[in-house]
Amino acid sequence: MLATAYRLTIFRQSSLASKLTQNSFKSLRFMASAHPTAPEGYFFAGPMSAFSHETQEIFPIDTPLNKRIAIVNRKKKLSAVVNICPHQGVGLHKGECVDIEDMGITWGSAIVCASHGWSFDLETGACGNTRFVIDVHDIKVVEDNVYVSLKPKNGNIQGPRRDFGGKESDLN
């Protein structure tokens, strides 16, 4: 219920509906509908179908948390990361996903910031370019519904974290 109210409030406070992305409208549609109670320590992010598009891998979502989250569907594996690059606050959903590989062996996947190319491991949140770390949240899929943990799962990873208070910068 908290997530539903939060997203509806965000929509009502928007001065121009045209500024909302297509994902915001999808988000509003499924958040306004009834959904099952989230497991303890998790919030409802949406139905699995909302994160399963052939042409898109990164899906920004609004949350009941004081931070933005992006759901990443990379090779049919879901990840949830803070949607703010710690460098200058650009939304990571504007970037792309890549494989982390060494000599032809794929070790994992990363999300790359569109502004300056900083890459973050989707499992650990560690940056391949600096000491910075982004929060990574656990995901549960229950009966085709996606739930994201309220607390990050990578608290043990050392490094500075900065999310600009959950507000994306105006940089492109």
From TrEMBL:
Q: Which cofactor does it need?
A: [2Fe-2S] cluster
Presence of keyword Iron: yes
| GO terms for MF | 2 iron, 2 sulfur cluster binding; metal ion binding
Q: Which InterPro entries match?
A: Rieske_2Fe-2S, Rieske_2Fe-2S_sf
Q: Which PROSITE patterns match?
A: RIESKE (PS51296)
| Source domain of life | Eukaryota
Q: Where is the Rieske domain?
A: 46-148
SUPFAM superfamilies assigned to the protein according to its UniProt record, in alphabetical order: ISP domain
The name this protein carries in UniProt is Rieske domain-containing protein
Native species? Rhizoclosmatium globosum
Q: List the lineage, top down.
A: Eukaryota, Fungi, Fungi incertae sedis, Chytridiomycota, Chytridiomycota incertae sedis
